Amino acid sequence: MTTEKELKGWGKQGSKFKSRKLKKTNSFPWLFISLLGFSAFLTLGHFSTTINNYSTEQSLSSQSLIFASSQYQPIKIGSSEDIAQQDFTEIDRLASTLNYQGESIEELANLLAQNADNELEKARIIYAWITQHISYDVPSFLEAINNGNYPDVSPQKVLRDRTTICSGYSNLYFALASAMDLETVIIFGYAKGATTIETDDEINHAWNGVKIDGNWYLLDATWGSGSVIDEKFKPQYKPYYFATKPSEFIYTHFPADRGWQLLKQTYSRGKFVSLPHISSSFYDLQLQVVSHNVNQIEATARIDIKLQAPNNIFAIADLYQGQKKVTTSSTFVTRQDNYLIVSVAPPASGNYTLKIYGKKGKEAQKYQKVITYEIQADKPVTEFPKTYAHYSKHEVNLIEPLESNLPDYSSVYFSLKVPYARDVQLVNTKTNNWTALEGYGDYFQGYVDMEPGQNIVVAKFPDDDRYWHLLEYK
Question: Is residue 29's pLDDT more than 70?
Fold first, then answer.
């Protein structure tokens, strides 16, 4: 997270600038909302604990009526695409460097308002300040679920401690936005990734809606602040969760009040639960689901999941059974024009979790998890060929064959793309027979008479006389 610095002229208790007159925050039952907080934690990470008991569900349901969508009709839905085209670089920077140390909602709102000239900038600078200055309180979350001691999530307490859980984030956003004359609501509902959704009554998360120039938008300051990984908070400012497209937000957030989906055609709870788990990185990389828009997939044979992706996007995938990663060659990623094909071959019957990761091709950044599926296999499927480091390094794309075990004494057709390769050969390690594949630019193909033993696809590249292993077949 950006190092916090104090803006010139801004002290602990106020500003040298002329203060704007701000509306006082409406009296609000923070105590009841705080009851929600213990079960609503940052869902970008993973805890092993699953929350099953909610003794305060009845109180929570009644509180959601405070912000019932029926009270705000007609709700005009804003264009998230237009918001995404705005340049918030300076607003985000100012929010990051404003190191306010006080506990007053009105005072902080006044400081933020000095740098916001319209409703959009007000809504953004509040989001940017909260997400870059408030950390997720993992110890309080664990204390709540383990011992039943729920934290105070009032806005003043959040400002004093600079740490909270999700309801504290949404409470603070509501308080600051109200003080800056923005119409805003707190939305109660269900978020994927935090808890196991088991009944129709569970509420495990809270986020906000805000009205900007007559239009309503969705935001989640909790998810915008970072991630919880291995029970530790990792701060990371994520602009994606400000004015997120409702059609994307619904993949992870389901409001108890369907009106706050901000969709012309709302989703049912069952439809929401059935959707795959998608992260913000999925949309950052401009990916789109083409073939499997459900979370649970039944596998009776090899699965081919198709994602639309720009040509500079690359992906890898891992298969897990429980917490253990499957070590066999059970996943394989290929490209077909503007699509990535993630193929899955479960090694045995059982339940699996498929995690797909993506990144921009030539960038040094690490792969980011983009989408997750649950797979139920009823029988083993032939594994894929083993790949070596140079397969990924040289951005090789295997077209066929995708089966690791090839029939002996048969003619098998090979086709693959090996950018910039000078020569590609199939080598039988038992007989030491080499068979060259015919090159057509970056593409190499041809029939090979298979012999018993291991067969390795190797390639030679410019300015290097060595052959490098790419793939291995049995």
Answer: no
